[in-house]
Amino acid sequence: MGGLRELAASFVVPGPAGVAIRDRLRVSEADAAVLAEVGVFLGSLAAGDLAERSRQGLGHDAASWAVRKRSLTGRSSARWAGSITKASHDQWALARRGQAAHMAWLRGQIASIEARLARPLGAKADKRAGLARGYATRGEWHAKSRRLQMLKDRLAVMEADRAAGRVHVVRGGKRLATTRHHLAAAGLDEQVWRERWQAERMFLAADGESGKRFGNETIRVTETGQVSLKLPAPLAHLANAPHGRYLLDATVRFQYRGAEWLDRVTVNRAMAYRIHHDTGRGRWYITASWQRAAAPLLPLQVALARGVVGVDMNDDHLAAWHLDVHGNPVGEPQRFFYDLTGTAQHRDAQIRHALTRLLHHARRCGAAAIAIEDLDFTDGTSREKHGHNKRFRRLLSRFPTAKLKARLVSMAAEQDVAVVAVDPAYTSRWGAQHWQKPLTTPTRKISRHDAASIAIGRRALGHPIRRRTTPPHGDQSDRRGHRTVQARPDTRRREETRPRIPGPRTRSMSPDTERKRATRTSNTVRDVRSDQIWVQDPLLLTD
Q1: Contact of 237 with 119, CB cutoff 8 Å
Q2: What is the mean pLDDT of residues 193-200?
Q3: How far from chain centre, in Å, is Cα 257?
Q4: Which of 48, 185, 210, 384 could form an SS bridge with 112, CB 3.0 to 4.6 Å?
Q5: CB of 480 within 8 A of CB of 497?
Q6: Are 408 and 360 a contacting pair, CB within 8 Å?
Q7: How many CB atoms lie within 10 A of CB 244?
Q8: Is 155 helix (H, G, I), strand (E, B) or coil?
């Protein structure tokens, strides 16, 4: 089959490696003032340390890290210095990975434009020969040639930055920094923006340490929910507890995973905390996080032993269908809708609600696995691939593929449901070709997405997407038998003629009737059993 790429093998997605829970801090005005002062002070130290780490670039080593930590220890404390330097190193590493990803994207864009510029105007694409389509007009060709030079210049600058170890990081977020110049369009005034900017640049985070009291000495939360933090040396006069600590009036009670958090705190296991101020709501929150022990991955065949629920992800709903171990759809198709318009919180809530209903459906069906496509859309939003279809490019851009998969894996792990990722190639096309029309009835309308969910589930189970191969003969009788692909690929003789099954053809005869028929003596030629031999008596010769 020329032109089709090789399909990647399906695999079980590993579970989450960490857990994060959040609760609201109902602080008093005095507590809020202290938290804001401490957060702004530590944020200024974190900004200076990040700038120093960025200047070091590739020349950073353990000795320079120790120098930075000693410098911060005198201005805060040893534990705050350790948290700040580690956060700066992680931020630099994250920016470095983002820089590499952006350079790879630039190289892909440059290669796509060069391939299309080399083609004649109006030339059609030839996938078999690997030739891209040409640009439609001379004006478009000229505009793309200018864009090519701009992308090459941008890539050259980024390559120079990467060779020198330079990264560009904005503490508080680049988007919020850009909003400062467009306050009217964002519906903000300068004071509101400055409060939000100050809140985003605060630093109130500390990693835990096993063996210390309640798992964290810097930000401590006791088993009863009391919150206290170690004050920096210049702000020690704000302490209201021994050893330079400030005890908040507010208490914490984690509703979600509270028992698991309490088990870790009681035995002094490492617990990381982060305190954040939401200026839009005027609330303070505390987030607790810890690492989970890596759970052993189930083998693929074990995860699929009770069938699978194939899921086709779309921009407005999830199409799901339960399949048994033989790849046959069971029951009715399910669709779980969500709305991706509005704020980020609204979209996140919609995704969580849809995934919750999907997991409940999988548990009701008795399946222990959910099959999804391993989508990333790395080149789906490219102008060169969907240049004139702006609506489709916008749809792909807003589709939360990574967030949806991450949430599904995290939520499925709590329900003991495995997530199987399959290659997304041709699932929609082949699903509609082989399953949409056969399953459509006058009372049931099967969509293309429902058929794609069957294709995804069958690929996870190891079955071909098509229902059966072409018969070896040209008519519809069963005298030679049909070849079937409903068996697994490792099943012997699955592509050969079906063997003759003993017994009546209808298989509707009861065992007692069949036993009586086998023992009685037939009086007619038609009822003679197949294991008897009928012989013609010789004619009598008479005079």
Answers
A1: no
A2: 95
A3: 22
A4: 384
A5: yes
A6: no
A7: 16
A8: helix
